[in-house]
Protein backbone atom coordinates (compact mmCIF):
# COMPACT_ATOMS: atom_id res chain seq x y z
CA UNK A 1 0.00 0.00 0.00
CA UNK A 2 2.85 2.42 0.75
CA UNK A 3 4.51 2.01 -2.65
CA UNK A 4 1.60 3.43 -4.75
CA UNK A 5 1.30 6.42 -2.41
CA UNK A 6 5.04 7.09 -2.66
CA UNK A 7 4.92 6.88 -6.45
CA UNK A 8 1.97 9.25 -6.54
CA UNK A 9 3.73 11.77 -4.29
CA UNK A 10 6.96 11.42 -6.24
CA UNK A 11 5.10 12.09 -9.49
CA UNK A 12 3.34 15.12 -7.97
CA UNK A 13 6.63 16.53 -6.69
CA UNK A 14 8.34 16.07 -10.04
CA UNK A 15 5.44 17.80 -11.81
CA UNK A 16 5.63 20.65 -9.32
CA UNK A 17 9.38 20.96 -9.84
CA UNK A 18 8.94 21.17 -13.61
CA UNK A 19 6.16 23.72 -13.20
CA UNK A 20 8.26 25.78 -10.75
CA UNK A 21 11.27 25.88 -13.08
CA UNK A 22 9.10 26.78 -16.07
CA UNK A 23 7.28 29.48 -14.14
CA UNK A 24 10.48 30.95 -12.71
CA UNK A 25 11.88 31.25 -16.23
CA UNK A 26 8.69 32.93 -17.46
CA UNK A 27 8.73 35.35 -14.52
CA UNK A 28 12.39 36.22 -15.23
CA UNK A 29 11.54 36.88 -18.89
CA UNK A 30 8.59 39.05 -17.86
CA UNK A 31 10.84 40.98 -15.44
CA UNK A 32 13.40 41.57 -18.19
CA UNK A 33 10.70 42.75 -20.57
CA UNK A 34 9.27 45.10 -17.94
CA UNK A 35 12.76 46.46 -17.28
CA UNK A 36 13.36 47.05 -20.99
CA UNK A 37 9.96 48.69 -21.43
CA UNK A 38 10.75 50.92 -18.44
CA UNK A 39 13.86 52.14 -20.25
CA UNK A 40 11.79 52.82 -23.39
CA UNK A 41 9.27 54.68 -21.24
CA UNK A 42 11.99 56.84 -19.67
CA UNK A 43 13.54 57.54 -23.09
CA UNK A 44 10.16 58.58 -24.48
CA UNK A 45 9.46 60.93 -21.56
CA UNK A 46 12.90 62.54 -21.87
CA UNK A 47 12.44 62.99 -25.62
CA UNK A 48 9.03 64.57 -25.11
CA UNK A 49 10.45 66.91 -22.46
CA UNK A 50 13.26 68.01 -24.79
CA UNK A 51 10.92 68.52 -27.74
CA UNK A 52 8.53 70.61 -25.65
CA UNK A 53 11.32 73.12 -24.99
CA UNK A 54 11.95 73.67 -28.72
CA UNK A 55 10.30 76.50 -30.69
CA UNK A 56 7.37 75.42 -32.87
CA UNK A 57 9.17 76.21 -36.15
CA UNK A 58 12.07 73.85 -35.36
CA UNK A 59 12.63 71.18 -38.00
CA UNK A 60 12.22 67.76 -36.41
CA UNK A 61 13.04 64.45 -38.06
CA UNK A 62 11.74 61.00 -37.28
CA UNK A 63 14.12 58.09 -37.73
CA UNK A 64 12.65 55.44 -40.03
CA UNK A 65 15.02 52.58 -40.70
CA UNK A 66 18.19 54.13 -42.08
CA UNK A 67 16.61 57.42 -43.10
CA UNK A 68 14.98 60.42 -41.47
CA UNK A 69 11.62 61.97 -42.34
CA UNK A 70 10.76 65.60 -41.68
CA UNK A 71 7.80 65.77 -39.27
CA UNK A 72 5.98 68.56 -37.50
CA UNK A 73 6.48 69.02 -33.77
CA UNK A 74 2.84 68.06 -33.19
CA UNK A 75 3.24 64.85 -35.21
CA UNK A 76 6.36 63.82 -33.28
CA UNK A 77 4.56 64.53 -29.99
CA UNK A 78 1.60 62.38 -31.12
CA UNK A 79 3.95 59.54 -32.04
CA UNK A 80 5.69 59.72 -28.67
CA UNK A 81 2.34 59.82 -26.82
CA UNK A 82 1.15 56.73 -28.73
CA UNK A 83 4.41 54.96 -27.96
CA UNK A 84 4.01 55.85 -24.27
CA UNK A 85 0.45 54.44 -24.18
CA UNK A 86 1.58 51.22 -25.88
CA UNK A 87 4.44 50.75 -23.43
CA UNK A 88 2.14 51.39 -20.44
CA UNK A 89 -0.33 48.79 -21.72
CA UNK A 90 2.40 46.21 -22.27
CA UNK A 91 3.80 46.78 -18.77
CA UNK A 92 0.34 46.30 -17.21
CA UNK A 93 -0.16 43.14 -19.26
CA UNK A 94 3.20 41.71 -18.17
CA UNK A 95 2.51 42.52 -14.52
CA UNK A 96 -0.80 40.65 -14.73
CA UNK A 97 0.94 37.70 -16.38
CA UNK A 98 3.51 37.61 -13.55
CA UNK A 99 0.78 37.62 -10.89
CA UNK A 100 -1.04 34.79 -12.67
CA UNK A 101 2.12 32.69 -12.94
CA UNK A 102 3.01 33.18 -9.29
CA UNK A 103 -0.55 32.33 -8.23
CA UNK A 104 -0.59 29.12 -10.29
CA UNK A 105 2.64 27.92 -8.67
CA UNK A 106 1.27 28.69 -5.21
CA UNK A 107 -1.89 26.72 -6.00
CA UNK A 108 0.18 23.74 -7.13
CA UNK A 109 2.23 23.89 -3.91
CA UNK A 110 -0.95 24.07 -1.83
CA UNK A 111 -2.37 21.04 -3.65
CA UNK A 112 0.72 18.99 -2.82
CA UNK A 113 0.61 20.13 0.81
CA UNK A 114 -3.03 19.01 0.98
CA UNK A 115 -2.06 15.67 -0.55
CA UNK A 116 0.69 15.20 2.06
CA UNK A 117 -1.62 16.12 4.91
CA UNK A 118 -4.34 13.76 3.70
CA UNK A 119 -1.78 10.93 3.39
CA UNK A 120 -0.58 11.53 6.93
CA UNK A 121 -4.15 11.56 8.24
CA UNK A 122 -4.81 8.07 6.83
Write the layout of secondary structure elements.
Blueprint: H1 2-52, E1 60-64, E2 67-71, H2 73-121
Antiparallel strand pairs: 1-2
Helix pairs in contact: 1-2
Order of helices and strands: HEEH
Low-confidence stretches: none
Mean pLDDT across all residues, rounded?
89
* Gyration radius from CA atoms, angstroms: 25 Å
User: What share of residues are in beta strands?
Assistant: 5-15%
Class inferred from helices and paired strands: mainly alpha
Approximately how much helix is present in the residues?
A: over 70%
Q: What about the largest sheet?
A: 2 strands, antiparallel
| Number of β-strand runs | 2
User: Which strand order does the major sheet show?
Assistant: 1-2
Question: What is the number of helices?
Answer: 2
Distance between the termini: 12 Å
Shape: rod-shaped
